[in-house]
Amino acid sequence: xxxxxxxxxxxxxxxxxxxxxxxxxxxxxxxxxxxxxxxxxxxxxxxxxxxxxxxxxxxxxxxxxxxxxxxxxxxxxxxxxxxxxxxxxxxxxxxxxxxxxxxxxxxxxxxxxxxxxxxxxxxxxxxxxxxxxxxxxxxxxxxxxxxxxxxxxxxxxxxxxxxxxxxxxxxxxxxxxxxxxxxxxxxxxxxxxxxxxxxxxxxxxxxxxxxxxxxxxxxxxxxxxxxxxxxxxxxxxxxxxxxxxxxxxxxxxxxxxxxxxxxxxxxxxxxxxxxxxxxxxxxxxxxxxxxxxxxxxxxxxxxxxxxxxxxxxxxxxxxxxxxxxxxxxxxxxxxxxxxxxxxxxxxxxxxxxxxxxxxxxxxxxxxxxxxxxxxxxxxxxxxxxxxxxxxxxxxxxxxxxxxxxxxxxxxxxxxxxxxxxxxxxxxxxxxxxxxxxxxxxxxxxxxxxxxxxxxxxxxxxxxxxxxxxxxxxxxxxxxxxxxxxxxxxxxxxxxxxxxxxxxxxxxxxxxxxxxxxxxxxxxxxxxxxxxxxxxxxxxxxxxxxxxxxxxxxxxxxxxxxxxxxxxxxxxxxxxxxxxxxxxxxxxxxxxxxxxxxxxxxxxxxxxxxxxxxxxxxxxxxxxxxxxxxxxxxxxxxxxxxxxxxxxxxxxxxxxxxxxxxxxxxxxxxxxxxxxxxxxxxxxxxxxxxxxxxxxxxxxxxxxxxxxxxxxxxxxxxxxxxxxxxxxxxxxxxx
Length: 734
Known about the structure:
Elements: E1 2-9, H1 14-25, E2 30-36, E3 41-46, H2 53-62, E4 66-70, H3 76-102, H4 120-137, H5 139-150, H6 156-179, H7 191-214, H8 217-223, E5 229-234, E6 237-242, E7 251-254, E8 263-269, E9 271-274, H9 276-279, E10 285-287, E11 292-293, E12 298-299, E13 304-310, H10 316-328, H11 333-362, H12 367-380, H13 384-403, E14 406-408, H14 412-416, E15 422-425, H15 427-431, E16 437-443, H16 449-460, H17 466-477, E17 486-491, E18 495-500, E19 503-508, H18 510-515, H19 523-531, E20 535-541, E21 544-552, H20 559-568, E22 572-576, H21 581-591, E23 595-597, H22 602-614, E24 619-623, H23 629-634, E25 637-641, E26 654-656, H24 662-697, H25 709-728
Parallel strand pairs: 15-22, 15-24, 22-23, 24-25, 25-26
Antiparallel strand pairs: 1-3, 1-4, 2-3, 5-6, 5-7, 7-13, 8-11, 8-13, 9-10, 9-12, 14-26, 16-21, 17-18, 18-19, 19-20, 20-21
């Protein structure tokens, strides 16, 4: 299976994106396809043994759209400049057209040759000639409307296209009558209506683009965070290359004030690096030989040489951009409601417009009134605002989350996070930093303390658990040699086993003693160490307990404040840990958590999560994303505290790259605001259509309230702007 994101050209409303999405999902070999109207792209998962990119792009073409290739980065400035130039030119042309066609109605001086009553033929001819550029300008609308009608997925362009073509055909008929001498038909010309409808639609789309481009700013910043050029070493010389020319294994030079070009490992020098864009840590990290560097980091004060390891799409920044883009291409459940409504809405409007047209003719209003009403209904009911209501708010919020270091893998998280009423925290590495230190040793053996810790550290160095790092750090700090370890085995939830100098050593918590049927005569010592907040490691050889080692951890910054906030807002907090109960309770008490579940194995964590869900709790699980992955997957929302170095492999729904628990509060807050914003957008979109369609049908005519196609197109633009401006309010969220 393979995933690609294609840039799509030609989409103008939710009916377009829905139609393309349905068409793609019907094709053999496509596992799933999601189309994003705001980002103008499509995330497609497909079977690469059946399809390739070229065939998928052919499907896009068959559906009436155009693939612009793989979605890479944004070229907003150039596109907007071209659109702005066209907008200015056609604004001037529209003013001329309106001046000639309607200037006399407000008493403006009109050249006699353009007087509709005294010179109907020149007047008609100039209106026709001025309309032609607008038809060319709106050719994409007419073409899209036609194609979508042929593919039986009528959309907004179909409504506008039918309305414009109807106006043009009737106007051409009236023009023919005028040329034949029937000058009374000068009152039946609708050239300016067809032109101005296209113009207002184009204005709306131009403003849509400008506004939606603003929603992509956070992603753009990520895309552009790496430098365009880098210096690589070729022998003893230095050579400047573009970032795309860098190959794995190249030696890259970084000098003070320069950005790291690609992910790699330092082979010479040391420097303080600013990695705040990933980790959120304002303090500059001192990096030296053997340590990793991330693309986009800023070198403050040193000379570095580093070996390229992850280039291009493999880099941490690229993985983050990919995650954000994929998230914007998933759909929240509330978005599917709007999509479903839009799918039925356009055919319903076409039916209403046709029945109204027939009714007007039947009631004797005349063909002119009937066609005007027909066109007005089609134009005023264009579901632009309905199509933008949800995706625009989602994309704004995705960008907002990204700027707060919150990477969301599915848009539905934005809808569901606000439902959370229970948050389960892992202890080590989540509520605490996981940077453990050896605090106290109770040695019952004949080994010297350093000799014992050398044995333990050599075995623990093979473990990925934070406790293992505490012993590895001890070896480095005390300059102890790492001994050779054979037959290493990790026993999840219990501990580890390894052979050193032909002797087997067992290291782990109290549960490992039961597993190996080892009697424990040191329970009281364990309780004393645990009461001081230590995690306990038993050291066993030949079924004899050699030592008890207490390892201590630091409570993560803001843990107390975050838990206090959650408790205050009636969100239950639970600590779920495999650590000793005494240790867990002490840390939980310091933080403010009253519900503690300790001595829990990974499988038991998953069972606990499932039980909470059965009790109708909406559960968010927050862990380190490695040993907690089964529990993260079982919860409604899995949140991983992660520095960003292994983002692609993380199994959670949300990754907090800034390692700050406050991000959980930000996520819930953004979720609440987003759902409220979407509901407001949907309300105004539906309210607009419920109000304007009856008006355009003439139901309010007895009250003197009526509109024409030009006013209808302007009203449609204003409805879209209302939704856009409301969605952009999310960007001001604190």
